[in-house]
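so the lab meeting is tmrw and i was supposed to have these ready like two days ago... anyway. pasting both below. for each one the top line is the aa sequence and the line under it is the structure tokens. i havent really looked at them closely yet so no promises
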Amino acid sequence: MSAEPHYLLTNDDGIDSPFLHALVNALTPFAKVTLVAPTREQSWISKAITRFRELEGSPLPDPSWHQGPRENLRAFTVSGTPADCVNLGLFHFCEERPQAVLSGINIGFNAGLPFIFSSGTVAGALEGSLQKLPALALSLALPPEAFLALQEKPPRLPTEVKENLYRVSARIPELVQSVVQEKTSGLTVHNFNFPTPTHASTPIRTTRPAKLQLGGLFEEHRPGFFRFAFPGIDRSQLAPDSDAAALQEEAISHSRLCFQLG
């Protein structure tokens, strides 16, 4: 086994996400990385596993965006979900068992129960945890205008977002090491949410998921046909120790999503 740590990475925004690229570039100077990411965006899909169609897994021998040591990255795309990617990564693409599974960096936060249960990012980490590995879900909260810029075709990455993404990515290698050393019992996903802005001195708070209620998620755009419509969020009654409250106060939120196994 290599002396360097080995991590399995996925996301739910797809292989072309600049947030994923930033995470890979932050890790490969220090670790071997097996990247298995969806071919296209798989947001809000939770822990779906593809059962009724064939999945295609394709290698990416030398991604143009990778800036680290070439020998430290093995990259693949899969025509499936984040949970598919992690399962295939562990049992088909990884040359050795990784020390941890990382999912992200997500474009937008995953704080609050409705977002956590719907998130493909959190679900990718959960699939790793189900295989008894340390698992981290990583998400970056964005102001609305930055989020909209990233939804354009092609996506636009504002300078201030790019700079903040670099600072967030620089903090993640140390967070991964601390999670691996913690050796949490049972099944645990370490759900990290980073605020905008994040700095080297931004504190990390231990939090619990906010009990948000979103209400209706769809609007009728013509008779009998509905489209997803992101709802307003009432943050006026947040518990002080919640993940959403930490983001509001520009702190990094660290929630341990624990399911004790007998």
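ok protien two:
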Amino acid sequence: MMFMRMAAIIGILASLSAMAADGMDDVVAKMGAIEIKRSEFEQMLNVAQENNPRAHPSQQAVSQALRTELIRRTLLDEAKRAAWDKRPEVQRQIESAREQVIVSSFINQQARPAPSYPSAQEIQSAYETNKTFFMQLPQVRLMQIYLPVASSEANSSEKVRQQAEELWKRANEKGADFSDLARRYSKHAESAAKDGDMGWLQEDLLVPEIRTVAQKLAIGEIGKPVKAADGWHIVKVMERKAASQKSLAEVRDSLVQSMRLKKAQENEQQYLNQLVAKTPITVNEITLSSLAASFK
């Protein structure tokens, strides 16, 4: 499901707040007789926020999630009217799912680390021990003009190559404005809207063809057109950042999350080990062998 963080959809909830002030619980969306009211919607969002506090959805994503939930409820209503939930095989699946929810919820609670974990000292120690994993690799800030190859036809590809060559020559003319050329001719909408600026990019994650060109360019230099799988690229190097060590403040949140996850896994295994030690498992190997043979 796509129900996300409340902060990212405050505009939607703000439009409903006046209703709440009047004690109303208006319908947010409906599909036939199936309705989702404001209170239900807020509850869904709160649960989603707890499950994924870092998500930042668009209004469109939230709207789609609402539609998905309406369809799910409508299907459920139809299934119940058909007494689908009374079928023996469905009843077995329901019971199995119910038991799994109970088991998962129980073991998650037993394994959950204490709120105080990890301590500041433990965080510092983990950071020092794993410093090599907290490196910011070399980055480069690029501008580009992108020309896609419309088809696999040779004449089409050649035409785009010629256009790329012409733009490269114009970009290198005295007084030329790369930003203007990118804004006018680049077909990469996102960067073209920013005058061709691609922002900071990690060098080792660049498309290989572009990385090869960019690594050879000086600051302010424009590389010759290079063809990648998606089309032709003309890139200009604006700035570079050498590899650097990330500070504890930069990685603290992700480090704490990783440490708590690892601790939960350790706690779960310890709990299971104690359970088995307290109540040993015995297996009737003869019966097991007979059963296994019957499935061959």
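from a quick look at the 2nd one: The mean pLDDT is 88. The longest strand covers residues 231-241. will dig more after coffe
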